[in-house]
Structure formats: C-alpha cells, structure tokens
Inverse folding.
C-alpha cells in the first residue's frame, strides 16, 4: 500500500471519481475525439454512417493497421523501426516483379515477399542486438537501403501486368458478398496479436523487456532473442502489408510505401503506446489506425478543399494527442 | 521518408505552395528545332569542358517514371556524345537540392541541368552558382529567366489544357455534355497546381454543363485509390476522372472498377507505359498527355552543348505536348519502347 | 533545555492518517535519532519541519518561539536545514558556487566576487575536515559522500541551528560513514542540534544522545540512548516482542552444490575459490570495492569472467541468467528498484517472470489460472501486503517490493539463492521476515550465498563466512567462531593471512 512515506498520488485506489474520469480521458483521449468526430460526420454528411462507407474506411485502414501491429510490438520493446514502410515497398515490388517478369506462381511470389520481409527484420534485429547499434540508426539506414533497392528494381517505373490480377482477391474479395476480405484479415490479425501479447510467454516477455530490459535479462529472459524475433515478426507483417498493397492497387511502385511510415507510427503513438516501452494496448492501436483513416474520409465527405485538409487533420491529431497531457498534469 | 518530412513541415509547405503559384508572364518560346546541334558545336562543347569539367544533372526525384526518364535520357545523350556527366537525385527535398547545387559548383561543373520542384527556395543557391560561372539549364519549369538560365519545359498549363480539353471533348461527344467530373490534384508540387487549374478551366470552357464534383488528393496510386473510394461514397455518379498524372489515375480506375463502375472515362498526364497499354486495351482509360520525357532529356543536353559552344538560341524553349488517345496509341506502343523493369 | 518542541502534531493524507498526536522534545546541541518502520510517519514529520508540508493540527516551538514554516524558505530563514537523500545540487557548477548558492559574496558593481567565494568555500570545507574538496571542482564529478558534505557545508554557512538528516548513510561505504560521523561530531561541538533519521540501529547507538520511536503515525517513546537496547528499540518499532532477532540455524548438509575455482575478472576478482553445500548459508563479507558484489554478479553471468571454473551439482556451469535460472540458481539483485522488479508490471507477473515456461503449455500459451496460483502461493508464503495481485509493483513499499523480488526467485524453484544485500533499505519488520525466509530456505535444503554489508546479519544467519578484500578471499571463517571485529580485521587487511583455509 502506498503511504505518505512513499508517493500517495500513485495509488489508483485512493482517488476520487473526477480523477478517474480525467485519467480515462487522458489514457483514451483520442477515442473521445474519434467519437465526437464520427458523431459530427454522421450528422453533417449523408453517407458517413453507411455500411458502404464504414467498410471503405476499414479497408483503407487495413494496411496501416497490419503494419502498425509490428510497429506496436517494437515500440513495446522500447525500440522503433523506421524501415517498416520501405520494407513494405521492397517486398511488394519484389513480389510484383517476380510475378510479372519471372512469371513465378503467385503463391510462391507471396511467400518470397514474406520471406524477404522476415529476412529484413532478421538483419535489423541482428544488427541491433549483436552490434549494439541504436535501433533508430539501424532502421534509418535500412530504410535508405530498401528504398534504394526498390528503386533499382523499378527504375522509377510502375510494375504492372495481368499476373497481378490473381492476388487482387486479397483486396477485393468479400465474405458472404458483404464483408470485404481485407477487413476480415485486419480483425483476424488483431485478434491474433491480442492473444499473442496477452496470453503467451512471448508476449509477457515483450512487455518485460520493454519495461526494464536489465531486470528482464536478470529474470532469465533472453532479451536479444525476443528482440530479434520481434523484428522478424514486424518485418513479415510489413511484407504482408506490401502484398496487400499490391493486391489493392494492382501495381507496384518504388514509392508506394512512403505514404505509410508516418501514419503507422502515428497510429501506435496515438493509441497511447509509450515510446519508452513496456506500455501499450494493441486494441487502441487498431482504433487509432481506423481513426486516422476516418479523418481523411470525413474531410472528403465534408468536401473540405485538399489545400486545407492537412491543416484540419493536423489540428485534429494535436487535439487528440494533447488530451494525453491531462494525465500528467496534476490537479 | 520524404513524406515524413513533408508532413512534418506541413505549414511551411502550404505557405510555400502559396508563394510559388505567382502568375507567370507570357513569353516568347523557342521550339525543339532551335536546339538542333551540329558536330562543330559538340566538339566546341567537349573542348569547353576540358580535362575536369562536366555537366551536372539534378533531378527532382527518381521515383516517378517521368522524372527518372528525363534525367536518365539526358545522361544517356551526354554519354553518347562523349561528354562527362554526373547525376544527383534531390528526392523532392529542398535541403538536398541546395546541397547538390553547392557540391556540383564546388567540384567544377560547367553546366547544371536541373529540375526545380520548389523554385523560390533554391533560386539564391542557383544565383550563386551562376555568379560562379556555371551555366544553368532548367527543365520542367520556367523560373530561371531572371538569372540568365535556359529553360526547357513542357508548359504545365499546356498539359492540363490538353487533358482537360480532351475530357471536355469526350463529355460533349459521348455523354451529351452531361457528366460528374472528379479532378485528381497534388498540391505538394507547386507546378502541378497550374496543371489542375488548367484542367478545371478547360473543362468549364469546353463542357459547360458538366459538374466538377470535387478535387481530390492524387499523385500516387494509393492516394488516387483512397480518394476515389471515398469520393464515390459521396458521389456515386462520378463518370469522368481527370488526373494530373497517370499514377493517380490508375488508383482512380481501381476504385471505379471495385465499385462496378466500368463505364467511366479516365484521362491522365505523363503517357506512362501502363497508361498507353490501358488506352490500347480500350477500357475506361481514354487518354493521356505525353510529356515527352526522353525528348526533354535530350533537349536539355542540346541546350547545354549550345551554351558551352557559345551559340545563339532562344532562352525559353517549349517541349512539344502530344495527346495520346485510342486513335494514335499505336505509334506510342512502338515508338518509345521503355526498357523492361528487371530486378 | 528543549530546543525543538512538538505538540500534538497531526497530518492526514487522503485515506491515511500519517501523523496523530505526535509530541516530543529535542534537547539543544544533541544528536536526536528518529526511527520507525516505513510508513511510521518519519518522512511526513521531516516534511513538516522543513516547511514542505503543513500540519493539520498541533504546534511546534523552536527555541521557545512558535515555528510554523509554510515553505522550505521559511525553514531556512529560521536556521533549520534539511539534508535529503536526493541532493539539491547543481551538477554542472563548481563546489564553491554550490556551497554559496543564495549567499554569494558580491564585489564591485554587484558582480560575483569569485576569489571571496573560493576562500569562503575553502574555509567552510576545512571546518568539516574535507579540505580535499577544491572550490573549483565540478559537483557532477563528486562521489555521493562528497555531495553530502557540500549539503552540510551549505547548512553550516546558513548558520543552521537545527540540521535534519534523512538516511544520510544509505549510499555510503564504511570509510565514508566514519567521515560523516566525524563531521556530525564537529557540528555537535559547534552547538548545532541534529535530528538524525536512520534505519541502521548500530549507527544510532554510536551517534545519538536520545532516540524517538514513531509507529503508525504515533509517538511511541523518546528516551536517552543509555536506557534503550537494540531489542527494546526494535520492539518499540514493530510493536511486538522479539525472541531474538535471528532465527535458529539448521544444520547444513554435506553435499557440495556449487564449486568455484579460481574465478578471475580483470581488476575486480582475482582467483576466488570456494564451495557451497546443500542447506548452507554462506555469507560473503567485505568493504565496498572488495569484490563481494562482483562475485555475486559473476556467478549469475552479470559480469564477464576472464578465467575460472564453476561446477553446479557436479556439472560444469557457464554463467548466464537464462542458464542459471534453468538449472535452479536464482539471484536477488542489489538494486531492487531498477533490477529486481518491474515497476510497471503487476505483482502477479513479476512473481511469474522467471517461471513463465512453467505456467504455460508447451506451445507457449500462458495458463492464467496457473500463473495466479503461483503468485497467490508466494504472496501467502512471503506475506506480501497488497489488496490484490494485480497491483502494480510501484505502488508497494520498499520492503514489499523486496518480497516480490524474493518471491520471483522462490517461484522458480531454486536450488541455490544468490542474495545481494537482501535487507538494504527496508524496515525492521520486513528485515526480520527476510531473516526468517533465509533460514527457512536453508532448512529446506536450499543453499544460500548471502552477500551483505551488515555484519550483524552475516553473523546471525550464516554458517560460514568468506571475507573478501581486493578481489580475493581474505579469510574463510566459521560463523560460530567469528565476531564483527575479526571480520573487519580481515576486510581491512589487518588480519593474519596464514589463517586462510
């Protein structure tokens, strides 16, 4: 029990109701803003609250969401991976190129892409744990290398061809003629991530390493192995995002991942995961990914000029993030 | 990465895009013929370069087909003629471009062939280079007249007008003048804004009864796809899309196909290989405007040679604009074989 | 004559009555010790005296005048200085600047008179017997003990008549403690009254003239040091009768569990060899820097080894935390807060952390019920005081955090426990429970390597004692034939080397 000898403000049991409401808003502040934004859109536009639009939003959130799972795991470790978006690009480009130019069977090409993503994660993990090079530096370098290789492969051109048609069902397929396949993929992946984090020894160890890696190591946890595993997992997920993106746009380009780096990291941070590691809820990352997509969706529906869209989206993000301050400001 | 910074410098970019849309004056424009070079000029140019001199090419980016092709054909042309050349990618990053200009000047470039995506931010760096005696050839823009540079450019207004006029023609001829039009824009690049304005103006003039339901973020396939998916929620009747480039138009096409709207008309700009194949296939992709990147690249080197040789020629030169439609697509399928993208 | 008099002081925090009707007097020019368990109200009382908190009720008289500071500045103005465990020093400034902060001598035009600052700082440090501290040294480079001297110097400069010291020796080694005691003696000789808060009863008997015990926010006793004993003080603090501080030791077994030969790590360990038997408590004593901490770390893989061999249960053993825990060697780190427990994880998860594979199925899926059972059993066995096992560890008191760290070791079914300073910084009641824990583990056939700086607990708990000095084993003693003086003699290098077995 906390006593005045220690720090009385830390114990949740001793706080009144207002404090708890403020804590909730502080921790889940972006959800409050999300709900307000959705309510506003439902009232001011005709088409926001339709099944079609909701599925459109969820489909658009799929790739950000899937890559954000990997980013979330790595941020839980207290690291950061800036190379995920360019991993997505390269894996997608390699897969498309194998299918179009080498006429590889689609399944094999997809497996090659996933393998490549895993390999990139492995290299990141090994460099960070074995050579003890800071994660930001390592993955920033990796980002540059991967973009460069993607550029060498594409020569600045779009890769396209009928061979890609085969995997388009990943983006366009539906279940029972109603629910888009990517939406199902998104929820299945998040359900799996939830179980892995909360119900497996691996998940428990990820939290432990992020919380205090020295103490985790002294508790017999092989910190390096957990880190490498996590980078491999995140790399594979990013590559899967690349597969989904090629299926979605039907082409592959050397710049197709660059639009994801910022939203993916924003989703994780907006979801409340601590950049110092050890704290974060995967469900919040999913909600944040959907929120980010809804911001753009709503502005198009509202007919806001594209010249002002960024200002509005920046403002919404700042408001959502600044609610976080309520938690740390003592009243 | 570059997107990351672009987002981060949100306000700055918006401020800048306001600055660079300053009206451009009407000017006398030369043509491709004015840039024909003679063997004597090539020899004189090689002599002017001497032992250490070279031509520096500063591209806007390597990650779109157009920009890469211009820069690469310029390099190719120079190497074919035995002129030393160095190529740099600015990655749509002002800081990188300024560094590139400074580095090239310092290492003794005689000519800088450059693409400016944000002219006001780099003009002073270019002025310094010009003061140091470096000759400047600008392509894909016309901001260098004041500092005595040569400009070789497709007029963005010409491109937009060509696309918009063709779309208006389709609306009038095929749709009895009635249509819901979506324009795909990309306000990050100032020159593109000129294109989008010209597209809108040409449609308003040529098909006054058509309704432009909105301008949406395009530029990349993913942006075009996302924007069009959302736009279709609000305006399911969109049946004409005009895009400031082909990449964005592909995304719009995906979205229309996904929505089961196979009867729409799509017009893009850039004449990328995929767009040409789509036009040839006869689907909803109806037209694209050829920006002649390879030709532009060659013209930049020709201009560089004339500058080095001291020849007289017009300061501002227009690159020819060609509309590609089902009628003439066959020429483009064979005329400009793009090398296969290979790993 | 009483210098400081408190009358019926009360202070409540939400949910806790921190102080209630506390009245006692401190005589002028004395060293007055204040003791009590964590949560007894010591810190609250210090905060009130230093102006950081205001009492809800009661009066304070200082030198026969009412004293009610509203801010720490008020307290300083009344010549009351408080020296906390965490220092209020500017690490990037010089010694002189820090000592004279707030009363810098001014020269012409109001500029700092740097020469006068140096002279004044040098004078005051000399008065404290700390002439080795140069006025121009950067404070950030100083040792903890030296920073403490600066704080005291600052208090002296303020002509403080009452100096409050909160656990001043908790981060000091023996030599530094001795130096501090000399300084306290000088302060006392200058007529300064000192209120001295400490967990270490030995120090109190050495230093104090009188001692006050607080328990659960109430005043229990104030007595001259001459009339109290070790046991009576502990009795007052924990409120119950003690039948001797240390439990009865069980007879150790004869099976060798751990054998260490010639352990060497550059500059830290130099050819350390010993054996540990089943059911034995083997204590390692030594001054700080003797290598005793490093020995514990090395056995668990937290310190690289250059040479040497370890056998565990007859098999060669190469230390690493993962391998050690798999084979039943568990380790309680010295730095509990940053290495022993995960502050932001629940008690349940902390306890299970070293045994995750045993509460999961073969595919790595956790069995929540098994994890809860494991945690519940340890919470019961170690009497961890918490409303529920989902409580975050950061909400626990130091003693309970230590119990969680021990619970984690115990849950992993240890054969050997390496315990580093297991009672450091925890209050007397929990200390007693840890003693019982250690003895019980040994009685159940586990072997304990007890690395400790407290000679009384070494003598009270261990069967055998290794005394280390300069990275070597200076002596191996049977506990029943050793006393504090013998151990210290070997630790200081004054012992007879021929007695090394």
């Amino acid at each position: 029990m906390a006593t005045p000898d220690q720090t009385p403000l830390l114990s949740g049991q001793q706080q009144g109701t207002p404090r708890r409401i403020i804590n909730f808003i502080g921790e889940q502040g972006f959800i409050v803003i999300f709900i307000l934004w959705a309510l506003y859109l439902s009232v001011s536009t005709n088409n926001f609250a339709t099944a079609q639009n909701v599925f459109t939003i969820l489909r658009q959130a799929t790739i950000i969401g899937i890559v954000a799972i990997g980013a979330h795991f790595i941020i839980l470790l207290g690291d950061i991976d800036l190379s995920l978006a360019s991993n997505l690009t390269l894996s997608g480009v390699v897969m498309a190129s194998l299918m179009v130019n080498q006429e590889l069977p689609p399944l094999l090409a997809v497996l090659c892409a996933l393998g490549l993503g895993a390999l990139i994660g492995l290299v990141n993990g090994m460099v960070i744990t074995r050579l003890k090079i800071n994660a930001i530096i390592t993955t920033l370098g990796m980002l540059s290398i991967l973009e460069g290789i993607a550029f060498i492969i594409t020569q600045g051109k779009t890769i396209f061809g009928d061979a890609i048609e085969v995997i388009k069902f990943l983006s366009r397929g539906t279940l029972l003629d109603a629910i888009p396949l990517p939406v199902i993929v998104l929820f299945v992946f998040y359900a799996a991530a939830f179980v892995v984090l909360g119900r497996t020894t691996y998940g428990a160890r990820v939290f432990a390493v992020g919380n205090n890696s020295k103490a985790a190591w002294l508790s017999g946890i092989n910190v390096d192995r957990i880190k490498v595993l996590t980078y491999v997992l995140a790399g594979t997920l990013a590559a899967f995002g690349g597969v989904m993106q090629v299926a979605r746009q039907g082409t592959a380009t050397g710049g197709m991942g660059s639009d994801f780096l910022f939203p993916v990291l924003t989703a994780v941070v907006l979801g409340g995961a601590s950049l110092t590691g050890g704290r974060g809820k995967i469900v919040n990352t999913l909600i944040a990914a959907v929120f980010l997509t809804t911001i753009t969706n709503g502005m198009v529906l509202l007919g806001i000029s594209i010249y002002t869209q960024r200002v509005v989206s920046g403002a919404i993000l700042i408001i959502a993030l600044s609610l976080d301050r309520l938690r740390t400001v003592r009243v | 990465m570059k997107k990351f910074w672009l987002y981060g410098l949100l306000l700055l970019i918006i401020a800048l895009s306001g600055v660079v849309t300053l009206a451009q004056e009407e000017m006398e424009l030369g043509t491709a013929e004015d840039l024909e070079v003679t063997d004597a000029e090539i020899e004189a140019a090689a002599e002017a370069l001497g032992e250490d001199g070279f031509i520096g090419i500063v591209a806007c980016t390597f990650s779109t087909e157009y920009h890469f092709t211009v820069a690469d054909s310029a390099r190719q042309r120079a190497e074919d003629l035995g002129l030393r050349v160095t190529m740099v990618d600015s990655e749509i990053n002002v800081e990188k471009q300024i560094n590139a200009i400074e580095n090239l000047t310092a290492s003794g470039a005689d000519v800088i062939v450059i693409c400016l995506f944000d002219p006001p931010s780099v003009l002073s760096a270019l002025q310094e280079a010009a003061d140091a005696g470096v000759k400047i050839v600008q392509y894909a823009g016309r901001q260098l007249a004041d500092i005595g540079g040569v400009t070789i450019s497709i007029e963005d207004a010409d491109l937009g007008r060509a696309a918009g006029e063709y779309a208006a023609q389709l609306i009038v001829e095929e749709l009895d003048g009635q249509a819901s039009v979506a324009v795909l824009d990309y306000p990050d690049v100032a020159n593109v804004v000129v294109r989008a304005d010209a597209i809108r103006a040409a449609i308003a003039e040529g098909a006054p009864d058509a309704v432009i339901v909105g301008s949406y973020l395009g530029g990349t396939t993913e942006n075009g796809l996302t924007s069009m998916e959302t736009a279709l929620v609000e305006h399911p009747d969109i049946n004409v899309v005009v895009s400031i480039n082909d990449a964005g138009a592909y995304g719009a096409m995906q979205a229309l196909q996904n929505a089961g709207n196979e009867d729409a008309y799509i017009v893009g700009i850039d004449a990328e290989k995929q767009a040409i194949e789509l036009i040839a296939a006869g689907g909803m992709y109806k037209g694209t405007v050829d920006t002649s990147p390879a030709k532009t690249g060659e013209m930049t080197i020709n201009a560089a040679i004339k500058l080095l040789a001291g020849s007289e020629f017009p300061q501002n030169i227009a690159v020819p604009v060609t509309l590609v439609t089902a009628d003439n697509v066959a020429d483009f399928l064979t005329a400009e074989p793009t090398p296969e993208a290979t790993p | 004559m009483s210098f400081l008099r408190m009358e019926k002081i009360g202070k409540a925090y939400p949910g806790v009555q921190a102080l209630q009707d506390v009245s006692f007097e401190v005589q002028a020019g004395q060293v007055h010790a204040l003791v009590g368990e964590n949560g007894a109200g010591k810190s609250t009382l210090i905060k009130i005296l230093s102006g950081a908190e205001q009492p809800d009720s009661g009066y304070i008289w200082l030198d026969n005048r009412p004293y009610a500071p509203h801010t720490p500045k008020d307290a300083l103005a009344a010549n009351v200085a408080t020296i906390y465990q965490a220092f209020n020093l500017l690490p990037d400034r010089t010694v002189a600047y820090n000592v004279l902060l707030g009363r810098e001598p001014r020269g012409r035009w109001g500029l700092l008179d740097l020469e006068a600052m140096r002279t004044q700082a040098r004078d005051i440090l000399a008065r404290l017997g700390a002439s080795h501290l140069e006025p121009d040294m950067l404070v950030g480079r100083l040792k903890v003990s030296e920073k403490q001297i600066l704080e005291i110097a600052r208090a002296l400069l303020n002509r403080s008549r009452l100096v409050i010291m909160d656990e001043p020796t908790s981060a000091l080694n023996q030599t530094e403690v001795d130096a501090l005691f000399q300084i306290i003696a000088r302060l006392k000789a200058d007529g300064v009254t000192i209120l001295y808060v400490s967990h270490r009863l030995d120090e109190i008997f050495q230093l104090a003239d009188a001692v006050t015990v607080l328990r659960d926010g109430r005043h229990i006793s104030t007595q001259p040091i001459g009339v109290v004993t070790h046991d009576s003080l502990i009795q007052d603090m924990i409120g119950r009768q003690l039948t001797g501080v240390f439990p009865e030791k069980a007879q150790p077994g004869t099976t060798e569990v751990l054998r260490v030969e010639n352990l060497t790590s550059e500059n830290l360990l130099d050819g350390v060899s010993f054996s540990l038997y089943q059911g034995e408590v083997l204590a390692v004593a030594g001054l700080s820097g003797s290598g005793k901490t490093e020995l514990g770390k090395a056995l668990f893989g937290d310190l690289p080894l250059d040479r040497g061999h370890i056998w565990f249960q007859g098999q060669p053993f190469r230390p690493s935390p993962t391998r050690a825990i798999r084979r039943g060697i568990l380790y309680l780190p010295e730095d509990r807060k940053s290495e022993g427990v995960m502050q932001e994880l629940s008690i349940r998860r902390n306890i299970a952390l070293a045994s995750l594979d045993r509460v999961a199925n073969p595919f790595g899926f956790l069995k929540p019920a098994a994890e809860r059972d494991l945690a519940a059993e340890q919470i019961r066995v170690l009497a961890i005081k918490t409303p529920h096992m989902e409580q975050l560890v950061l909400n626990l008191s130091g003693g309970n955090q230590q119990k969680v760290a021990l619970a984690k070791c115990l849950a992993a079914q240890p054969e050997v426990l390496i315990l580093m300073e297991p009672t450091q910084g925890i209050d007397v009641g929990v200390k007693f429970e840890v003693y019982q824990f250690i003895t019980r583990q040994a009685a159940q056939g586990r072997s304990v390597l007890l690395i400790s700086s407290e000679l009384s607990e070494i003598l009270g708990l261990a069967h055998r004692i290794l005394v280390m000095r300069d990275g070597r084993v200076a002596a191996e003693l049977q506990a029943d034939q050793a006393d504090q003086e013998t151990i210290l003699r070997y630790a200081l290098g004054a012992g007879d080397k021929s007695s090394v077995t």
User: Anything to note?
Assistant: Residues 13-25, 335-343 of chain B have pLDDT under 50 and may be disordered. Chain B touches chain A through 48 residues (CB under 8 Å). The longest helix of chain B spans residues 156-175.
